[in-house]
Amino acid sequence: MSFDEIVNLLGLEPHPTEGGYFRRTYESNLRVDSNSGSRFLLTSIYYMLTKESPGGFLHRNKSDILHYHHLGAPIKYILVSPDGVLSERILGSNIKNGEMLQLLVPGGWWKASRLCAGEYGLISEAVSPGFEYADNEIATMDFVCHNFPKLQQVLKQYIKT
Question: What does the pLDDT read at residue 19?
Answer without folding.
Answer: 82
